[in-house]
Amino acid sequence: MKHLKLIALQICLLITFSTAHAQSNQKVDLSKALKVGDTFAPPSSVQLMRGEVKKIDWKALENKVVILDFFDTFCGTCIQSMPELQELQHKLKDKLQIFNVGWQDKATLDKFYATNAFLKENNVNLSVIFADTYLKQRFPHQSAPHVIFLFKGKVHAVTGNRLVTEENILKLYNTGTISLPLKDDFGKGDLAGQIDNTSQKTREGVWITGYQDGVPGESMRIKKDSISGLIKTSFYNESISNAIKFTWAKIKPGNYITRAERRVFNVKNPEKYYDFGNEGDVWYVKNGICYERLDKMQRADSVQARIVLNDLHNFFGITSYKTMKEIECLILKPCPVKPYEGKALEGAMSYMGSAILATMTDMGEQFPPVLDLVKSKEKITIGPYTNLEEFNEQLAAYGIEAVIGRGMQEVLVIEEVN
C-alpha cells in the first residue's frame, strides 16, 4: 500500500508542476473578458520580441486573420504546436498574422528560446508578445494553449490550438465568419438546470448529453451540490471510454495508466468511443459526452461508481470489465549490472523503484505499455533519452533491461450488448 501511495504522489506532483500557473487559485476578474462577436479593443502598446513584426499596427492587421496563441514555457502542447504555426505563418503570410502571447518577462523567454533544441531544429521564429497583462485580461484562461481568432476588429473564436488550421483560417478570411468549439475555462456544467426546467426545485435524476460547448472537460467528480443539497456525480466533455475508465478507477483502482493499448473495444465503431486519431476538440464535439446524477443519499465512492457504471452501460447499450490479456509491452527484466559510462545526465529524474519508473515511462507513451518484472524498490535516476538503446544504457547501471515483447497485462474491455 505504501508503494502505491508513492506512485500516486509522484504522478500528482508531475501534474501539479505542469499546470501550476494554469491552475492558479487566484480569483480572476471576468468583467473585462471579451466574448465571440465582441469588438476587439487593442492595447495601446505591447512589448515584442522575435519574428518579423517590429511594431504592431492593429488597424492594418484588421485585413488579416490574427491569431493570439497564449502559451507557457512549461506547456509541452504549446511548444509542440509552434512549428505548425510557423508553417502556417510562412504559407499564409499575406492573410495571417500569428502572435505567441506570454506572461513571462523577456529574460525568461530569451533563455527559453536559446535552450529549446526542438524549436531551434524546426526554425521557429514567431512574433512574441511578452510580459502581457492586457490581453490576458480580455481573454482570461486557466490552461494553455488558449487561442483567439480575430478578423476585421472582431473576436471570431476563443478555442483550442488544434483548430488553428489552414482550412479554418481561410474560411474566416474568405467568408468573414466561422464557428469553432468554445474554450471557456470558467464555464460550468449544469445538465440538470438546462434540461429539467419543469420545476424550480432541483430533483433527483440522471442526465446524459453530448458535447457541451464552453464547458471545460472534467473527469469524474462526486460532491455535495451547494444549491440543492443533493449529492452530485458528474463528468463533462469526455469520451465514453474515459467515462468508463473513471468509474472503474473508483471501483477497482489500478497502479498503471489505462492507455489506448490497454483498452479493448468489442464494438462496431471504436472511433465513437476513443480519440484514436488524437484530433482533440474536433473529435470531442462529435463524440464527447456529459453526465450528471443527483442523489439524496451519500454513498461510498466505490458504491456510487457502480451505480454510475450501470447508468452508462444501460444508456449506451454496452458492458465493461477488466481482464488479463497478452499484449505488446516494454518489459523491464533483470540483467547483469553494467556501470553507466555515457555523458552527464542533465535534467535527470529519480524514481523510488521500478514500479514508479514504469508508470512514469507509460505516461510518456514513447514505448508500448510497460510490464515491470523487476519489482525493485531501489532509487533509479534516469536522464533524457531519445530511443530504447539510450534508455537501456542508463537502466543497466541498476541491473535492468527493457525489451519489446509480449506479456500479460490487465486491460479494460468495452463490449456492445447485442
TrEMBL record:
Record flagged with keyword Disulfide bond: yes
Protein's name in the database: TlpA family protein disulfide reductase
Domain Thioredoxin: from-to ranges: 34-178
UniProt keyword Mitochondrion, yes or no: no
Pfam family name, one: Redoxin
SUPFAM superfamilies in the record: Thioredoxin-like (SSF52833)
Listed InterPro entries: Redoxin (IPR013740), Thioredoxin-like_sf (IPR036249), Thioredoxin_domain (IPR013766), Thioredoxin_ResA/DsbE_sf (IPR050553)
Chief location bin: other
Signal peptide: 1-22
